Amino acid sequence: MKEKIIETSLQEFLKHGIRKMTMQKLVLALGISTKTMYKYFGNKEELLEQCLKIHYSEADKEVKNILEGSPNVVESVCRIYSKAIETDFGTNHLFYYDLNHYYPELQDRVIKQYSNGALETLTGLINQGINEGYFLSYLKAPVVLETLTILYASVTRSNVYKKFGLKRELINQTINIYLRGICTAKGLEVINQLKGSSN
To answer: H or E element: which one contains 17?
Structure first.
């Protein structure tokens, strides 16, 4: 029953956003009693945390699939960030907006459980890209990742850029410009090919 509550609640959060979904609305969607819901979860945040664990576990699998299907590190990094942008600003935009603006600490806590493996993977990708001549030789992978994280968070979590009304385009521009900036001519060639194939 607990797994069913988590899975169904996650789908409801993804569909309607987090703030709009009360425990009572979730109980109705599940067709269970309030007593049953509170037997497993003391409040909405406890339930959301369990939902996020499943959600980020699935996202981790998607990243692994991207890595297996990419012929080089530049394409891997570009596809990972494209997938993140698509997810944040795609069909489930309200879910991510609510998560980024109203539950950032909870999101960070759950992501932290998955971040060690992801950070190792991304650090390895950046270092591999440097060694293979795709990224500039003087770069330090931890600095590159920290910069990408700050750029991404500045658009998804802050209202600084709200006045432009172009969040998706803006993050594409900031991330893509930064990725171009860390590339050698060899890396830029891959990015240009990717850009050409997406037109």
So the answer is: none
- What's the CA gap between 4 and 9, in Å, rounded? 8
What are the distances in angstroms from CA 155 to CA 98, 163, 166, 196? Answer: 14, 12, 10, 26
Residues composing the chain: 199
Token look-up 């795709």 returns 134
pLDDT tens column, 21-66: 999 999 999 999 999 999 999 999 999 999 999 988 888 888 888 8
Mean pLDDT of 66-85: 88
What domains can you pick out in the chain, each with its CATH number?
56-198 (1.10.357)
How many Cβ atoms from other residues are within 10 Å of residue 177's Cβ?
10
CA dist 30 and 24 (Å) reads 10
Q: Which helix (H) or strand (E) holds 105?
A: helix 104-131
Q: Distance between CA 9 and CA 22 in Å, rounded?
A: 10
* Residue at 102: amino acid letter: Y
Nearest-5° angle of CA 83, CA 7, CA 69? Answer: 30
Query: C-alpha distances in angstroms, 7 versus 13, 41, 138?
Result: 10, 14, 45
Closest CA to 99 of 113, 90, 108: 108
